[in-house]
Amino acid sequence: MADAKPTVFSIPVQRAFADALAAGLIARYADGALGLAQGLIILPSNRARSAVQAAFVRAGGSGLLMPRLAVIGDADLDESVALALDPIDESDAIPPAIDALKRRLMLAALIEKHNPAGEDPITGAAAFQLAEGLGRVIDQLHYEEIAPARLADIESALGDLAGHWQASWRRLSLLVDQWPKLLAETGQIDRADRRNRLLARVTRGWRIAPPARFVVAAGVTTAAPAIARLLRTVADLADGMVVLPGLDLGMADEEWDALGPVKADPEKPHERPLETHPQYHLKLLLGRMGVSRDEVQPWGATSPFDGPDARAPFTSLLFAPAAYTARWQQAGDLGRGISGVSAAVFADDGQEAQGIALMMRHALETPARTAALVTPDRALATRVAAALARWDISVDDSAGQPLGQTPPGALLLALAEFAAAFDPVRLVALLGHPLVRAGEARLGWLDQVRRLDLVLRGPGLVPGWEGVTARIAERAADPKARGHGEAALVADWWADVAAGLGAALAPFAAGASAPPPVLLRALQAALGWLTGEGAWTGHAGRALSELFDRWALAKGDGPALVAPADFPAMLTDLLSGESVRPPYGGHPRLFIWGLLEARLQRADVMILGGLDEGRWPQQQSPDPWLAPGIRRMLGLAAPERQQGAAAHDFAGAFAAREVVVTRAMRSGGDPAVASRFWLRLAALAGDLPEARLGGESVVALAAALDVPPGPVASAPMPQPRPPADTRPDQISVTGVDLLAKDPYGFYAGRILRLSVLDPLRAGPDPRWLGTRVHAFLEDWQRAGATPEALEVEIGRLLDDPALDALARAFWFPRIEPALRWAAERVWAARTEGREPIATEVSGVHELDGIRLTGKADRIDRLADGGLAIVDYKTGAAPSGSAAADGLDNQLGLLGLLAEMGKVDGVAAGPINALEYWSLKADRAKGTGGSIAPTHGSRRKLKTAEEAVARAYDAFAELTAAYLLGDGVFAPGDNAKRFTDYDQLMRRDEWFGRGGDVP
Asked: Which of 42, 1, 9, 71 is nearest to 291 (CA)?
């Protein structure tokens, strides 16, 4: 057998691999009903096995007995040979493979315990994240059969590396040395090591006693030495063959040689292979098999699903090495090579998903026609599936969905993030998750969640369980508080939530680092309290339950302690690596394939989506353990080899009969750069025909999909004129200013009684900060406005539990000087006979049939017996001309009430000053604030008396027109500002359209 010529075939890239393989094997071995059944086909993945099974059914009909199909796995698939190839002799038992999660936890613990001298320790979640990369390095060493002792052989080459790479190397050497001992204690071995041993045993067995049946290794492209030896053994069998996918037998010898060596030459250390080329990994596989390209024979069988023969030389030319792209200019007419290929460039990735969904939907109009989206971009795949759902078309994404993006996984991550950092937004989102209290009780539960949402809105919420409880009690006790009714109804329900969910999450609330199993059990208990069995049902729930079980079986392995704040990132990293593949049941003629799933399969219409750089090929993450130069010296694959595999996948899908390539100009809101594959295609073939459906551009159809037909009539500017009996007979001083500036805003807020929901957030917002400053000044003044009282109130402000770390770090250092400036101004005014006599006092009086109300921040008695009205502003004060123009009447009307003796506890007196105290640093004057009177020698209004009179005139005019008359509440000047009611007034539809603007 050793002297026999190896039997190796290649199915050309334009052929539908699975169908051509089935057709050829049927023609060769289908001698009677059992001819095929006596054989064995070795395939690279479970998806390839499904594709070959379907191909045999299509080619042979229902009466065919198929050969046995065995999956030997791929390094990235993490699948083992198991018992698929031959019965296992118990005397030659191979230890079981260690569970992937248990191994990662053990490696994380190893990283924590073993640190090179002089290096900072790596602990907790950081160790867990680095353990994934360490596991990959160990697998790659097994994959390439590189002994750990080899690491010491290149110690002398480290001097040329940067310091952080040398530190990483020292740590890696230590860990790789310690890992075999730790693993041996478990009685298990690495999965990659076990796969190598299984393959080696099968290889030895077949060389000693060749199987009596025919053996075909088909579609395997992995160049691992153990797989290469097995393939060579199969190729040497008397009735064995290896069938490769898409080996370019027409490539010129000089181009084939230009791909570089398959084995490092010590005399040419700088000679590097072209690993990004789609043919290099096949060249490497042939080299390790000891087979030359000349010995590979073309596969003769064809299938009805093949692409045009001219596509193969075009694809070869498309991926010519850079030194040979000059051949593009001598290529001549390439029309036959791109026959059946079209392109679509969309505005963004959302529109791209709509266009792809349209093309897939259109394929269903032809009976038996199939269509497949091939993309490595999982986000695009999810969007396309969602877009197809609008037509009630369910399509399976065969690449699966990350566990963290499924409902149970998303709920777990939301729960972990909430437990690590209490936040009302996360709380409401968590309690409203679709899995929480699913069933008959859910409607009542959601009613309480909505009530809680309303109660928590508004400034001043103290973060934490106690803060929410205090807010509910506060609102329930105050009949005038917003959300009073909701608070009374939600109090008992919230007590149950705090007792159940809060108790389950107690390990997180403690704030101290804890063992990961403790935190995981807390989340498990919380999930059970929230959902019962709901989080553990369905294929995603079962996958999550299995993950918990696997972690429990690890029996304490992993980082010793993890900070609660780091645990969500640790879980996110873990769940992102777990894929959930839904059970079959999607549409039988539409498919979404990842690159791995698309290998060896083909549909009538192949849509190659997401051809932007970073999406296809995907951006490569750097190896945190090994520098690129060290990887080369060790003989490990460069990260660029994955790009070569992606190019081979692109070539295989591109060679179909009907192909549409798509990309988006923007992805995730940012400009996108065309993929290198797209750029090569454009450079070689020029502008491809635009993808069309029924004569219409796919891009245009996607853009118009959600646009209503016919012309769109813009809404006119609203002109509400409510009846007289609905117009209020009471107005506040701030309401007068709102009516002057924006009558529509007054109409929406005071007549329609539509109020904007307060924000739902844990941190203080600007409104609360302003309210807290007013409360500070009120409390200080009621305490006597002394220096001692000032220090007490500043201490209380700094310790206010409603202030978050951000406010303490940035807002407090800015507001404290302003508060001290205000206090110093009060003390200085006292020496001049000016004394504060009232703070936060209300006034009310009926004027011209309208009840006017208002509240003054502070009223001072001047030395001459007159009064000064003061209003605090934490932002900018109104402009100097606003009062004269009738747009700022607040202080003037408060002065009017005080002058008439209508302010509580303040005797009537003349108004001599109307002042805004801006608690904002005045950099020009170098002060912590500034005083802006509404009148003065440089103002249009010279005295306070004039300002009061002007405010009364404005009040009289506005109330006569809008409250007592039939004036139209038209929008104000919205060109300079945005309001809370822009959407209600449909501002964007009419603003700027000529005469509609008031």
From this structure: 9
